[in-house]
Description:
- The chain has 209 residues and is mainly α.
- It has helices at 8-23, 27-38, 46-62, 66-79, 85-105, 109-123, 133-182, 189-203.
Amino acid sequence: ELWNVSSPCTMMNSLAQAREELRAADYAAAEKILLSILEGPDEISSHILFDLVGTYEELHTVTGRYEDLIGIARRCAERAQTLPNIDIQVHHANSLIVIANAELALGRSDDARRHAVTAQEILGPFSPELFAPSSREKLFHIWRTLKSLQKVLVEGHRLSTDRISAANSGMANEMMEWKTFVSQRNISTRGLKGVLGKMRQIHGLAGSA
């Protein structure tokens, strides 16, 4: 049976209780409380929804349930549909960032990058001055999370590109060495074994010539 959470004050207390359960590693109890807030019939404030998403992210990250986190983030974005339009947009962007981090944890960097780009496009037109101080703080938090995500994506792409470049360079050098070897007029068995052995070593192949 779901917890009875109706008023904003009760929701805040429930969120605090969920965090306590999370710290105590009682993940099932924490999830039960969070689900009662997410599926509750009453309207939810923008601040509580923001904290709900963050607590869900912490829960699913510590338990490694990234696929579930993607689904929850989308449901939280849907829950924001009763809020003012500017809040809807901000929560949509925040959910996309949560999803992008989950996609990245699952090794789907292209999907993560796509969601991050969309989140930045949504957040771009919103000046911090449009928000009250407490909301502004949350907006800054979203921007910081997005920038951290983008940095990881850029570094990951650079490392991947460097590995590809190194591999291509190694293959080019290897091909040049092979062409030089086979162009020799007299090819010895010993020399052939040496070149083949080096190729096996480069590619991590077992066995001997």
